[in-house]
Sequence to fold (327 residues):
Amino acid sequence: ARAWHLMSRPQGLPTDENFALKELDLPPLAAGQVRVRNQWLSVDPYMRGRMNDVKSYVPPFQIDQPMEGGAVGEVVESTAEGFYPGDRVLHMGGWRDEAVLDARTVNKLPDLGAEPQAFLGNLGVTGATAYFGLLEVASAKPGDIVFVSAAAGAVGSAVVQIAKAKGMTVIGSAGGADKCDFVQSLGADQVVDYKAQPILKGLAAAAPEGIDVYFDNVGGDHLDAAFALARMRARFAICGMIEGYNKAEPAAFRFIMRVIAMRIRMQGFIVFDFQSRMDEFYREMGQLIATGQLKSQETVVDGIENMPDAFRGLFSGDNLGKMLVRL
Ligand code: NDP
Fold:
C-alpha cells in the first residue's frame, strides 16, 4: 500500500517538500479488523490545522507518519463480525490507497440510493456541517436573511440550498464570476464576488436591510463585513476561517464592537458535536436530495499522486463544491 506522509510542518501554504508518498507495510489482519481498498479520499481545509504542532480538537499529524482523513472504500478482507468483502464503508483511513482498520472505527454506508462519494459530501461531514450549523447553531428560521461565505464550496453550497429549501433569503459570496453564477444557480438571491470588490462594499449592496444570520467559512474581512451588516440579535455560526489557515497572524476586525450594540450571538461549533443525530440528518438530507432541493457538486482529482495538489487547491479556490480524490 502507499500513503502520504507529513515530512515537515508547512509554513504558510504547504509545498511539495512537506509531503511524501511512501510505501506502507500493512500487517495481516488481527481479530475484528477489516482491510479496505479506498476508492474516494477527502481533502478538507481542517487538515491544514493538523499539519501544525498545536493541540486542537484533533491531534496533530506526526512527522514521517501517514496522514489520515475521511475515505470511502470497499472491504477486501475481514475478520470482523458483520463485515464482508464487497461492503462499502466510510472511515478515517484516508491519504492512502489501502487501510487496515478496527471494524469499530468503520461505518457501513447506509443504503440511501446515493453514490458512495456522497458520504464524503452532502451525506457526510460536509452536509452535516451545513445542516446543523445553519439550523441548530445559527437557529436560522424561515424569513431570515442569511449570508454564507465560500458559498461555492462544499459546505457553503449545501448551506445555500438548505436555506432556500427552508424559506430563507440567501446571500452567498465566492471568488470569481463563474463561481458566483454557480451560487446563483443553486438558488441564492444575491451573490457577491469578493475578488471583484471589497466584501464589505459588496455585502452592503447585496443586503441593504442587513443580515440575520452569518454562516462563516472564511473569517477575516468576511466576518468583519458580517459584523458591519448584522441586524439586531443576529446569529453567527462560526464554522471555519479558511482565510487564516496559512497565516501566522490573526486577522484584525474593525466592526467587532457591533457585537454589543446589535446583541450578536456568535457560536463556534464542530460537526462531531452532532454525531448522535445522524439518523435525523440522513432522513432530512435524504428528503432534500429526493425532492431535488439539494444537488451535489463535486470537483474530482484523479490519482493518489495528485492528492497534495487537490488539498492545496482548497486554498486557491480550485474547487466547485466538494473536492475529492478518486483512486
Ligand atoms: P470548500 O469546499 O469551501 O473549499 C474551500 C473554499 O474556500 C475554496 O473553494 C475557496 O473558495 C475558499 N477560500 C479559500 N481561501 C480563501 C480566502 N483567503 N478568502 C476567501 N475564501 C477563500 O471547503 P469546505 O466546504 O470543506 O470547508 C468550508 C469551511 O468549513 C472551512 O473553513 C472549513 O474549515 C470549515 N469546516 C468546519 C467544520 C466544523 O466542524 N466546524 C467541518 C467542515 C468544514 P473561493 O474560490 O470562493 O475563494
User: Anything to note?
Assistant: The first strand starts at residue 2 and ends at 6. The chain is about 25% helix and 25% strand. The two ends are 13 Å apart (CA to CA). The longest helix spans residues 125-137.
